[in-house]
Design brief:
Length: 213
């Protein structure tokens, strides 16, 4: 009887361990939205910069809080060139935006060449890696083309179906040939990819203050 009980307890423990570890193994942090070709002051420092006003947003689409230590954005395809190292934690459903100016400051303080996020305007690849000890793993990659990187168009996941990508093109409407397709929405750095169509004449400062509320 005692043997049977011990076996039962061991089986329960095994099931619990495998459930927890398979949950922890799910890809949770993803590239959520980015803007490669800024034409306005996106980082809010009152100065326009083609480099500092680029941005990349990540999101936690899983159900567990993620420790971001070791997560890095990289440029380059064969050997990664680190552009930004994350720290802190990201709650389920939360997003975090990195502006070119954040990337520049990180490169500066870590002794890397100073290029910012370096998102090419005629198409590029954004790489999110995780470095843990001697292991470097690819967490998420997104390759974009030329039309996705025109002035003030961001590219992001559909908030209702994160497998679908859209161009948030309220400030610079896409032609039908855009890939992914334009959705008429305003880009959403630092907030979930809800669609606000809004007036394109609205200033970015006004939009930003609305998100803050
Ligand atoms: Ca660019
Ligand atoms: Ca700026
Ligand atoms: Ca967003």
């Amino acid at each position: 009887m005692r043997k049977a009980f011990r076996f039962f307890i061991s089986a329960v423990c095994l099931i619990l361990i495998s459930t927890v570890s398979s949950g922890a193994g799910l890809a949770q942090v993803v590239i959520n939205e980015f803007l490669a070709d800024p034409a306005r002051d996106w980082d809010g420092d009152a100065v326009y910069s083609y480099r500092d006003d680029e941005w990349v947003e990540i999101a936690n689409i899983g159900s567990l809080t993620v420790n971001l230590d070791g997560y890095l954005l990289a440029d380059g395809e064969e050997s990664p060139v680190w552009r930004y190292g994350f720290s802190g934690t990201l709650e389920p459903g939360a997003v975090f935006v990195v502006y070119g100016s954040d990337s520049r400051a990180w490169e500066e303080s870590n002794g890397f060449p100073i290029y910012g996020l370096s998102l090419n305007n005629v198409g590029d690849r954004i790489n999110l890696y995780r470095v843990s000890g001697s292991d470097t793993t690819v967490v998420d990659i997104y390759q974009y083309g030329d039309k996705a990187a025109e002035d003030d168009r961001s590219v992001g996941r559909d908030v209702h179906n994160t497998d679908i990508w859209l161009i948030f093109d309220a400030f610079n409407p896409c032609p039908e040939s855009c890939d992914p397709p334009g959705c008429g929405c305003v880009p959403t750095p630092g907030s979930v990819n809800d669609c606000t169509t809004g007036s394109v004449s609205e200033s970015w400062g006004m939009i930003k203050s609305r998100y803050r509320d």
